[in-house]
Specification:
The structure is a homodimer.
Chain A: H1 3-33, H2 40-58, H3 61-72, H4 78-96, H5 99-122, H6 125-146, H7 153-160, H8 166-186, H9 203-217, E1 224-228, E2 234-238, E3 241-246, H10 254-272, H11 288-302, H12 306-320, H13 329-335, H14 350-369, H15 377-389, H16 415-435, H17 439-443, H18 448-457, H19 467-475, H20 482-492
Parallel strand pairs in A: 1-3
Antiparallel strand pairs in A: 2-3
Helix pairs in contact in A: 1-2, 1-3, 3-4, 5-6, 6-7, 8-14, 8-20, 9-10, 9-12, 10-11, 11-16, 12-13, 14-15, 14-16, 16-20
């Protein structure tokens, strides 16, 4: 076959894989947003079947042969080259990890999650321990099957953040740790300041405000929607179909609002991938870290600025009436940054959040290489928490049992949250440098210049470059901890 | 293989087919209820891929071999025997109809639908004619591929109503035609009577009332949901997951309400199929006619009775406040039956509805056997309409262009609507005979005795018997036009 028809063959195969993946995506979205409870067990079987179909498409010898030939005489076009590399990465992972291990992991994690939920509710680590041990054992097997250099953690991290490894993470997190603990220690946990306006905020009005904000940032509702779910998320199901969710509480509107801003950031990335190429391997998010950078950028670097609220506070006041009468711009923005040490990651502010991630990264690395036996996790968690936050963890519910990630097999996922924060700050600094005064844009509810910059530098690039290369091309330097530290210090000032 | 493991093999294969079908079902539901407009073209490709996967599972030689062996020494259990028969029916259809024809039909119908919509809007049959001709040609090829006796129409009808054929339909419809035209001629099209209370009926209140009614009838919301769509429908997606829809207009609540009752009837049938067997071939609706009988029974035979409204009118009054102040029980129920000749099928009352079906059945049979060239359809339609209704069709928008069915390739579908009405009346007569006074149940909002009767006689039987055998076992006689005519005459009285 000539190169052209080999590429056609690759694209034809990938189209089928992408169609199956988008169908699996809809099953997942529906499960969290629409599905009635009694549909659960059938849905698990549907999802498992789809996963199996995707795996068998990836494992087909024909795909490997096509990739062999394409690698032997690579095309000139960089997007096609990136597609070949990404297809090989996926195919190689699919071939290396035995089906039996995939199924065993799915089975154990599915059993582990209700056990974890119960253990957390009772703050009883011993209930969860045997499952955690099994999961760690299986994740070690997965790492061994995939193969690794340096540290087994690298094999797992690579699935979420291709090109990143422990050596780079250790360096970044070492740079961050002391400045962050210093920032937190300097803060006086401004407990007098409320975290948000408290009152009665109608859910319908919250929804309208969220939609208005998503639309203003550039989210296209003819190619997307906003729904409600227990945990907010974004699902870029298919070209022309990107769905975001948030959750509402009637006592305050900021949780749902920042949920929308965060997920809109993810959604803008998905909607910014070139639609015509969506079935090609290169045409997807570069990494979870880059994905998170887009959500954090809009949520924190835009949505918590004074100029942003100069535009949105009057709109919020118009929607919620008297509930916001006493809230000046100063009072509201004063709520949005105050560092506040907390035991729980998902309640953390921008500054302390990264310490929560550093803690989890260090522990999961040790769990995976065996230097920390799972039985000693609570003790190790509490010890390290005290070192980072200067606070004594009262129980495992507020400690090592708080997150669902490990129960779901998500080892190697946590660092992408802080990578997202770092990329976001670095992108934003570069954008401000290039675009000049963004504040007057925000004050007028105009976000198009910033979005265009991100479209060009990040969204349209897809996975045709690594996360690090995207960062370098967009900002002129490799990922560094300095822009985020600068951003956090400015908040305090 | 022993019989036992052959059955296991059949069940394993059918489980996969059912999982794929339920996934295709979710794609379809989502397309009509949730999907943003820009997702349309990708969704079509997803649906086509799923259809292809289902077809290739049905066409696998292994399935045929298993069925060969099971047919050679059939199991004793009647449900297993029915499963073998149904699996063979599906497999045989899949093998007989060439893939090329399936794809061509899908392609032409997908092109034809926007053309039909445009032609209807302009009342211009000539626009639609070339597509109609192509579709008729392809449906003839389909009938030839499947094979038939008596009339090519039988090959198409069999997909919707297994066991039914033109000879039986002709006999039933001949019995119906004269009494129905007489009933309609006797009616004075009581134009003075409004079709519904007109006012301002809040959508949220309509939704609450619909949910209350569905719940009262027995629809389980932990295993189902109620949504909004342009055309109301029911999708029994999976065990534990049955979804119904309706549509709302704020000027009146009866359209959404009867939409809910109708779809709840379908939904109760789906929820009444034994959950544990849902992946076995026998465990599905016996036919579209039986399915429609369940919707019509709850909508018309229950939902339009005086006793039903003795319970629901006070609830509706409480929900809608002053808008129903002037509506007594007599006045409201007076609206629900008045025969009213109309050009449009979906606006028809219980009596004239069946004349609309007889018209379409006669025409599509002639289109299919070639005795009516497509170009002469408008003339033939208008002629027959005048014969049945005594009214002159003003234009094709009010005539042969009004329904989407033919543009979608649905030849053979229309008769199942009237079969549903006939089965519904016959079931209801038998239930009333066996259960005694149902009116006092309805007056108290109690529907459990009727539902239990339907569960036992219809729902739990699935497709283990033919529609005709279910009818005979439940009512003591073959399907007849008499119970429906009796019901319609009682309405007039």
């Amino acid at each position: 076959m000539a190169n052209e028809s080999l590429l056609d063959d690759l694209h034809r195969r990938w189209k089928k894989i992408t169609l199956l993946e988008s169908t699996a995506g809809l099953l997942g979205w529906d499960e969290q947003v629409c599905m009635p409870p009694a549909g659960q067990s059938w849905r698990s079987e549907q999802s498992a079947l789809l996963a199996g179909l995707i795996h068998s498409e990836l494992a087909k010898p024909g795909l490997g042969e096509t990739l062999d030939k394409l690698e032997a005489s690579p095309p000139a076009d960089p997007f096609n080259r990136a597609s070949i590399q990404e297809a090989r990465r996926r195919q190689s992972r699919a071939l290396k990890i035995p089906n039996q291990l995939v199924e065993e992991l799915a089975r154990v994690c599915s059993q582990a999650q209700p056990v974890w939920a119960h253990a957390r509710a009772k703050s009883d680590f011993s209930q969860f321990l045997p499952f955690l041990e099994k999961i760690i054992h299986l994740k070690r097997e997965e790492a061994a099957a995939v193969g690794w250099e340096g540290h087994p953690y690298n094999a797992l991290l690579d699935e979420y953040e291709p090109g990143m490894d422990c050596a780079q993470l250790d360096a970044l997190f070492d740079e961050l740790q002391t400045p962050l603990t210093t920032l937190v220690a300097q803060s006086d946990d401004q407990k007098a300041i409320p975290t948000q306006p408290v009152g009665r905020f109608g859910i319908e009005a919250q929804k309208l405000l969220g939609e208005a904000a998503a639309k203003a940032l550039g989210f296209r509702f003819n190619a997307g929607r906003l729904d409600t779910s227990t945990h907010p998320f974004c699902s870029g199901i298919a070209p022309g179909d990107c769905r975001i969710t948030t959750r509402y509480q009637s006592e305050g509107f900021l949780e749902s609002f920042f949920g929308v801003l965060h997920e809109t950031g993810h959604g803008l990335y998905e909607q910014g991938l070139p639609e015509a190429c969506r079935a090609e391997p290169w045409c997807q998010a570069a990494s979870l870290g880059i994905h998170e950078s887009q959500s954090r950028l809009w949520e924190n670097m835009v949505g918590r600025t004074r100029s942003f609220w100069e535009y949105f506070l009057p709109i919020a006041k118009a929607m919620f009436g008297a509930e916001l009468d006493d809230w000046s711009l100063e009072r509201l923005t004063g709520c949005l940054h105050a560092p506040r040490r907390s035991f729980i990651r998902v309640e953390a502010d921008e500054t302390t959040y990264n310490l929560h991630i550093i803690l989890r990264y260090r522990l999961e690395k040790s769990l995976l290489d065996g230097s920390l036996p799972a039985v000693e996790l609570p003790q190790a968690w509490n010890h390290l928490f005290h070192e980072l936050f200067g606070m004594k963890v009262p129980d495992d519910r507020h400690g090592c049992l708080q997150d669902i990630h490990w129960a779901g097999g998500g080892f190697g996922y946590f660092p992408t949250y802080t990578l997202g924060n770092l990329y976001a700050a670095q992108f934003m600094r570069a954008a401000r440098k290039e675009l000049g005064d963004l504040e007057s844009d925000f004050r007028q509810g105009v976000f198009a210049r910033l979005l265009s910059w991100l479209r060009e530098k990040v969204h349209r690039v897809g996975r045709s470059k690594t996360a690090q290369d995207i960062c370098h091309a967009a900002t002129g330097s490799r990922l560094s901890s300095l822009p985020m530290l600068e951003h956090l210090r400015n908040l305090k000032a």
